[in-house]
Amino acid sequence: MPDIFSWSLGPAPAAISIIFGYLLGSIPFGLILTRMAGLGDVRKIGSGNIGATNVLRTGNKKLAAATLLLDALKGAAAAAIASRWGIEAGIAAGFAAFLGHLYPVWLGFKGGKGIATYIGVLLGLAPAMVLLFAAIWLGMAKLTKYSSLSALVATLVVPVVLLATGYGKIGVLFVVMSIITWIKHRANIQRLLSGTEGRIGEKG
């Protein structure tokens, strides 16, 4: 257990990893792509979110898919590139990218909810676990037709499996990221409890 919480990354590499990760993660691809496509400010429709789910509300599925992919890739790139200087640097950069997506300085710290970037960081640090996340999401989505619930369940299971299979520090990172993800989804959780959350495929 002590190895999980010990930190040998020096202050300079840590600072560089965090700054690099945050700047990469804070790129608001959803906003950039919708503006480039002439669809205006995505923050003024639906939930006001810059993530792929809200981009989908523009009616442009290809744009939503591109947003999902790019939001995931920025997390994966931050974690994978920084990992060249050790796993701790990768963890620092991945976490910073996740926070950058949630709280981009360029948008008044109002970003997305983080699922795509969460998956990206997972891809960069423990790629095999992306298959587990996908399997859980797809299974829950087929069973319940709730996208938010599927993601929440996946973020609940993944950290447990990471810790149980010896991923140590990476597992701790995803415990923290999952807690933040659940906090960011508190409105979805409230709607799920009240039965008003929209299901996959529903319009409006």
Mean pLDDT: 91
- Number of H- or I-type helical stretches: 11
The main β sheet shows up as: none
- Count of domain modules: 1
Rg value? 17 Å
Question: Quaternary status of these chains?
Answer: single chain
Unreliable sequence segments: none
Class per helix and strand makeup? mainly alpha
Characterise this structure.
It is a single chain. The chain is mainly α and 204 residues long. The protein has one domain. 69% of the residues lie in helices and 0% in strands. It contains 11 helices and no strands. The longest helix is centred in the middle third of the chain and has 22 residues. The protein is globular and about 50 Å long. The chain starts with a helix and ends in a 10-residue tail after the last helix. The relative contact order is 0.12.
Brief account:
With 204 residues, the protein is mainly α.
Q: Which helices and strands appear, and what pairs or packs with what?
A:
Layout: H1 2-5, H2 11-25, H3 29-36, H4 52-56, H5 61-82, H6 87-102, H7 115-125, H8 128-144, H9 147-164, H10 169-184, H11 186-194
List its traits.
204 residues; mainly alpha
